UniProtKB/TrEMBL annotation:
Organism: Bacillus carboniphilus
Lineage: Bacteria, Bacillati, Bacillota, Bacilli, Bacillales
Domain NERD: 38-149
Superkingdom assignment: Bacteria
Cited Pfam families: NERD
Name this polypeptide is given: NERD domain-containing protein
């Protein structure tokens, strides 16, 4: 399987993680972070299961499109042989029950949006988009529940659902029918990637501002603040991770840009943001090495280098 559009955490999840590390999430926001993490874990888990198989095909993750004014998101598309599979990955746990067409969580007592309806909407829009691209391959769509703690009562047999205990057989089938990838499939995959929207208007994050967020370098692994150990090394007392100051500053800048796209990356801003690095000189040096310098004197700031 060729992973042509790899799975990465969304900006929304990344922002929530930073805000969590810098202590600015309410209890409600923490629950939202947990939900986002679970969703991402589910997608990672499914990617892992697909990638460890010997399946010939193309995998595309997280596609966001606008078709005639309607926005829709696709978790995963698999291009295999003559078919295109649209997969919506769900990491729900608990017992659910379908009552009069509604999906109801037995434990919390709450209804959730019917995921089959969402999938159908997505399929319709994607079918139209693919037709416009002149695609002749068949489109099949499924909801995939990856969490073994999930159970659904009253599930009709004709629903496009793959339950945890069926994933293995589903992948076996794919493996059997897969053939080496054709050039036309690559062309279609690249076209589908190029049509993706960059900005996600569904992104919802809690309000925050530079002044109120706690400053310092967050550990990449456990998101606790790191402290200076010696020379140019930082240590996390939470998990024992060590990191060079340079790499911590580069991460700090990326975080800063993610949270404050409208602010300029200046030595002073990054000095304040990273806090633990005592020397402005070091900050300036790392910025000049890893980022492009724009402007002069007081208006000097840095932007990301264009990839070669
Ligand atoms: Zn740590």
């Amino acid at each position: 399987m060729q992973d042509l559009k790899p799975l990465v955490p969304s900006d929304e999840l990344r922002i929530y993680r930073v805000l969590d590390g810098r202590n600015s999430l309410s209890e409600k926001d923490k629950q939202q972070l947990w939900k986002l993490e679970r969703g991402f874990e589910g997608e990672m888990e499914f990617s892992r299961l697909v990638m460890e198989r010997d399946i010939e095909g193309i995998l595309l993750n997280d596609l966001l499109y606008e078709y005639k004014g309607s926005l829709f998101q696709v978790d995963k598309l698999l291009l295999i042989n003559n078919s295109i599979l649209l997969l919506d990955i769900k990491n729900h746990e608990d017992d659910y029950i379908i009552k009069e067409g509604k999906w109801h969580n037995e434990r919390t007592g709450q209804d959730i949006r019917n995921p089959v309806e969402q999938l159908n909407r997505c399929e319709t829009l994607l079918t139209n988009l693919l037709q416009d691209l002149g695609n002749k391959n068949a489109l099949e769509s499924s909801l995939v529940f990856v969490n073994p703690e999930f159970f659904l009562y009253n599930a009709p047999v004709d629903q496009p659902i793959i339950f945890p205990s069926q994933i293995n057989r589903f992948l076996n089938k794919l493996q059997k029918k897969s053939l080496s990838v054709k050039k036309s499939q690559f062309i279609l995959a690249e076209k589908l990637i190029s049509l993706c929207k960059k900005e996600n208007p569904f992104t919802r994050v809690p309000p925050y501002n530079f002044e109120e967020l706690k400053k310092g370098v967050l550990c990449e692994r456990c998101r606790r603040f790191m402290r200076k150990l010696r020379g140019r090394t930082l240590v996390c007392d939470g998990c024992g991770s060590l990191e060079r100051v340079e790499s911590a500053i580069v991460r700090g800048v990326k975080e800063f840009v993610l949270l404050f796209p409208e602010k300029k990356v200046t030595t002073n801003h990054i000095y304040e943001w990273c806090k633990v690095v005592e020397s402005k000189h070091t900050i300036r040096r790392v910025l000049s090495e890893h980022f492009e310098v724009v402007g002069k004197w007081k208006s000097t700031h840095f932007i990301e280098k264009m990839e070669e």
